[in-house]
From TrEMBL:
Family indicated by similarity: Belongs to the F420H(2)-dependent quinone reductase family.
Reactions listed under catalytic activity: oxidized coenzyme F420-(gamma-L-Glu)(n) + a quinol + H(+) = reduced coenzyme F420-(gamma-L-Glu)(n) + a quinone
InterPro entries xref list: F420H2_quin_Rdtase, Split_barrel_FMN-bd
Name assigned to this protein: Nitroreductase family deazaflavin-dependent oxidoreductase
Organism the protein comes from: Nocardioides koreensis
Organism classification: Bacteria, Bacillati, Actinomycetota, Actinomycetes, Propionibacteriales
Taxonomy, superkingdom: Bacteria
Matching Pfam families: F420H2_quin_red (PF04075)
Coiled coil: none
């Protein structure tokens, strides 16, 4: 029951963010990530806080502090194409998990500049993935 309630609240928040055209949330910049559902084949759009890093966007698969992976991350890992939309500009992307020293550096920057993901990490048993969304060459 708790998971259902969490999913419902998350979906409502996503719709509100998209319908209002919000570009910032909790002090951070938002992008819209669209992936194709790995089971349904339907497009799914999720607003995510991000850190712009060179030619890519760094996001955290936090799922709002829930102890299960977000669907967008499962879809990307399954090979779903992704599209990032920022300020009306859409860019096809692929998603790759960042590991090692680069992950530690991005984790520190994300927590300092974007959002307190460490508070989410303390609540869950899984390691929150730090994901680089990089443009797909045309």
């Amino acid at each position: 029951m708790r998971r259902r309630a969490f999913v419902l609240v998350n979906r409502v928040a996503n719709v509100v963010v998209r319908r209002l055209g919000l570009r910032r949330f909790r002090g951070g910049d938002l992008l819209l990530l669209t992936t194709v559902g790995r089971r349904t084949g339907q497009p799914r759009t999720t607003p995510l806080l991000y850190l712009a890093e060179q030619d890519r966007w760094i996001v955290v698969a936090s799922n709002g502090g829930a102890d299960w992976e977000p669907g967008w991350w499962l879809n990307l890992r399954a090979g779903s194409p992704g599209t990032v939309k920022i300020n009306g500009t859409a860019t096809p992307v692929s998603g790759t998990e960042i590991d090692g020293p680069e992950r530690e550096e991005m984790w520190a920057r994300l927590n300092a500049d974007v959002f307190d993901y460490e508070s989410y990490q303390r609540k869950v048993s899984r390691r929150l993935a730090v994901v680089a969304l990089a443009p797909v060459p045309a």
